[in-house]
Amino acid sequence: MISYIIRRFLYAIPILIGVNILTFVLFFIVNSPDDMARMQLGQKHVTQQAIDNWKQQHGYDAPLLWDEKGEGAEKITKTIFYQKSVGLFLFRFGTSDSGRNIGADIKERAWPSMAVALPTLILGLIVDICVALMVVLFRGSKLELGGMILCVILMSVSSLFYIIGGQFVIAKVLRWVPISGYDEGFAAVKFIILPVLIGVFAGIGSGVRWYRTLFLEEVEKDYVRTARAKGLTETQTLFRHVLPNAMIPILTGVVVVLPTLFMGSLIMESFFSIPGLGSYTIDAINSQDFAIVRAMVFLGSVLYVIGLLLTDISYTLVDPRVRLS
Amino acid sequence: MSSFLSYNLLFRTCVLIAIILLASCDGVQLNNPYPAEQNGQAILYQSFDERPKHLDPAVAYSENEYAFLAQIYEPPFQYHYLKRPYELVPLTAAKLPDISYFNKKNEKLSANADAKEIAFTDYIIDIKPNINYQPHPALAKAGNGEYRYHHLNQTEIDSLNTLADFAETGTRELTAEDYVYQIKRLAHPKTQSPIAEMMKGYIVGFGEFAEKVKSLPKTAIKDLPLSGVTAISPTQYRVRINGKYPQFMYWLAMSFFAPMPWEADVFYDQPGLSEKNITLDWYPFGTGAYLLSENNPNRRMILERNPNFHRETYPTEGEPEDQAKGLLNDAGKALPFIDKVIFTLEKETIPRWTKFLQGYFDASGIASDSFDQAVQFSEGRVELTPSMQEKHIQLQTSIEASLFYTGFNMLDATVGGNTEQARKLRQAIAIAIDNEEFISIFRNGRGEAPQGVIPPGIFGYLDGKAGLNPFVYDWIDDKPKRKNIAAALQLMKEAGYENGIDPKTRQPLILNIDTTSASIDDRPRLSWYRKQFAKLGINLVIRDTDFNRFQDKIRTGNAQIFTLGWNADYPDPENFFFLLYGGNSKVKFGGENGANYQNPEFDRLFEQMRNMDNNSQRLQLIQQMEGIIRRDLPWIVNFFPKKFTLSHNWYNNRKPHAMANNELKYQRLDTVSRTQQRQAWNAPIVWPLLLFGIIFAILLAFSVHAVRSRTRKNYND
Fold first, then answer.
1. Which of B127, B167, B266, B375 is the most buried (most CB within 10 A)?
2. Half-sphere exposure (CA, 13 Å, Cβ side) for A139?
3. A98: nearest CA in chain B?
4. In this complex, do A279 and B194 lie within 8 Å of one another by their Cβ atoms?
5. Is the pLDDT of residue B7 over 70?
6. Can you give the pTM of this predicted structure?
7. Statement: residue B661 has pLDDT above 60
8. A31 touches chain B (CB under 8 A)
């Protein structure tokens, strides 16, 4: 398995280089270094001299991808792409174009994002699976039909509606929790209750329908019939046999998102003033801060690769027939 | 097992409800976002929606940055908090500067010398003694007198995360040399000050100094001389500028010219600190009423009272009505009144507005979606709605020193140029664009339709008939009334575009407006623009583009019509008219004149007016210039924005100021009243929790019963 993991990591290198090139090209098709300088220097009294000075100070005065005037390897190494990208592979994200250390920012903002995303994922998973199993238990009945109609209604409503509605009812009308904000340690609980509940509730419709489909596929298989035949109750059959056998598709969806949880949620964090990473990339795109954009895209790619690898590894844990080689 | 679980859950729910019921009986506010220990403290709660990009006074140049910096840094002068029109008064300076004029031979001239003769102007500034910096590790000294943290090793740096991790702090007295040092910082190319290029034209020796130090580290400038800026004594310094530029005084009231101790750069420039985000751009270092004790702009920023703040008192004079408004109740008392200011990041308007209504923010602006909830118009007057009045919320309105305009590219073959045909076309468009309607529809009345370029409150603005734009308005019933569209159609005919038909193509005239506003939210506004031009038979094409391309078009003169805004640096007509000065043409000289307007007569008057002190002659020149702009119309000034702010009745000494940002030190809170009103407004409603609990218990019991029945049924099957 170790050789498999190493091989997967090696496969990731060209993927990450490709992602990096793509990000670079897409960014600089839309923004030139002069545009970036103007954005950073503001709207007033910006002269070409100030722009040239900014580019020189931030290392954007070199050619983008290829230096005609350079000799040998310098044709590549004395370019913006090389200078700005090589550190990424060592996880040195460097400094943002507005002067902040990106690594330190990510570290600081990752925890609040996790504080909301992780409970939402775990609680959502438990609720969705339990409700889905319940629906499967009542398959063919009016309860299942009613449940599915309810799920379709729930998933048809925009998550923004849940957020605004939840804030209005729980925080404004009933005044049970603060409408937004964040605090350190245990004091954060009162702030994350509402976003977590809304996150779970907003995901019930789609989650239950997805898991119900998985369970229904399993529930008709021979081993389930055997379980029933040997005298197990329906609840025991569902929890002891159907659920473990449905774990592979569940893991596919869950494990892959685990490493990216700290990347946060843009809308949720924005409405609840959670100081997470949700808006970090979008804010950087709006302010044309290439240093942050490339760092976050690179990090996102790495985490996705790790997520996929973890998913593969988790298969071996839930299904003894799977061997990684 | 299942029944045990359900009973257990039911029990826990009941306990939770009981706790909440008990808590509510005790007056506890469950929705209070602040820790209980902050109750009753003189803490001002504010919000912000965009993180400040820079907090280095040499770099920061945005309103949201000044909201913090102005409380921390102290330039030599400030605006009087209460007096209008805006007036400069000393801050750290002992008095207003002694200004002397010199000719090319460096001979002193009289105070009323002709501006043409003046080659240099000297500003001699005296600093008050006994002003100390905020406690800061950069000034901490060891027992041997050496700076404690100027030579940090890697182990020490590794153990640090924020500025608060430094165990010791120190202070020292402010000196004139600190002001000189800051001006040198402005010049250093590595500082990247946005005003550096402009100051090269004003401060003597600024450009040469920048050239000399460009390859040196920031810390090397301390002992290098800048010829135009010198410390004469520890409490006196001189700034020499080229020619006469009276507006330079206003620059001396901006954070760019606040003092900076040389120790700051030595401390912050140590390798490794910037990787921890411990930089001067993040942790400001001043002498002001407040210091930034926490800087996490993704969550909150906290200003605390500077324990070393020098004595400054509340103004004893103001406008005549200030006494009646209670704005002079604290006259002569020592500043500041508020101990701490907590700024919380609130990006969305809904939670921000709700927190204000709950009393958790002391003041608020009014977003469009809550405007009708807050404000109503009654017989043309703005007033608060009954629900706001019930909460004793106060409304303040003020015209900002800003303007928004529709610009014509004067280099364009159709709308530009000084021909009679083009001028009449522009005048017709000016009549057709109904600014009053725009303000009413898109700004909820928060703006004033302009008659000229100068906003109210700035020298040169004339109210009433004297300030009327006769090309667009008539004076009827003692107020300006926009000319009838028939007058615009007549102008179109005279311009050669009868009924909007372009004689060259025999089709409706097509004009293009460039804009960066292309989202769904902007469509009604753009559609409104089309309708205004359609009144004249003109087909307006909206060319939406991204910000970069828009800037390119303006820079290269490829835009035909565009919309832009301007926020004044200082309250002087020069800071508005320079946007139309030919020498600042965007295409020719890369200046701020995006319309590329060039009129020799206007330019001559501008050159004459800009160096004058405010007097009747200057006022006359300004009116002449306004007359030229009204006739030539390189811009249609759309509106002067009006700021509406709400505050609770416990928040006192608030007076809107379009130029000053250091207003927090003057303001006061009645914390007893705030605590009482917050409690009254925020008692939790608990009965629905009980109802939810019962419903949940019933559903749970039903589910358990249903599962059991189903299991039994399947088993029996």
1. B127
2. 15
3. B53
4. no
5. no
6. 0.90
7. yes
8. yes
